[in-house]
Amino acid sequence: MFHLKKNPTKKKQKGYIGSFKLSSVLLVMGACVVALAGCPKGKPEVRVEIASVGDTMAFDKKEITVPAGSRVTLVLKNNATSPVMTHNWILVTEGKVDEVGQAAVAVPAEQGHIPIHPAILARTPLSRPGETVSVTFDAPPAGRYEFLCSTPGHYMQMRGIFIVK
């Protein structure tokens, strides 16, 4: 038969283990607080304004650049006065402007001249002269994209480059 001896350092070990657990918890909590304090809340927000140029088929910008990972609000101001000059703004994958613009011809104004197309990444509603419309979307991955107005016949002149850096 054998006897177990009490460990005289048991209290120290228990205290050490307990303080180690507490230290670990505090260390993890502190790291979380530091990490959260150093990070912006949510995605950076970017506001982009673009407008039509009078009664012409032209945007006032040919190129727009936004940071990758941002939340973009694009505001389109239709500066036309002629009732036939409706405009919208559509973001598409690069190389798809003509395809989307041609598909829009078959879509009536009541549907915003916006075709159902897989290349469309973001779009505003159709704006009438004097109106301002907007769209909010997450910037696509870094790269080059294109934008257009899909009112029939406009895409040939109302187009530009959208760059995400």
Can you tag this structure with a few keywords?
165 residues; alpha/beta; Immunoglobulin-like; 2 domains; globular
Order of helices and strands: HEEEEHEEEE
CATH 2nd-level architecture of the largest domain:
Sandwich
CATH classification class of the largest domain: Mainly Beta
Examine the coordinates and then state which fold CATH places here, giving the name of the CATH topology of the largest domain: Immunoglobulin-like
**Strand neighbour order, sheet with most strands:** 2-8-7-4-5
- Report the helical percentage: 10-25%
- Mean of pLDDT: 85
Number of strands: 8
Structural domains: how many: 2
Binned strand content: 25-35%
Query: Which secondary-structure class do the elements indicate?
Result: alpha/beta
The 3D shape can be described as globular
- Low-confidence sequence ranges: 22-39
Biggest sheet, open or closed, and with what strands and sense? 5 strands, mixed
Q: If helices are DSSP runs of H or I spanning 4 or more residues, what is the number of helices?
A: 2
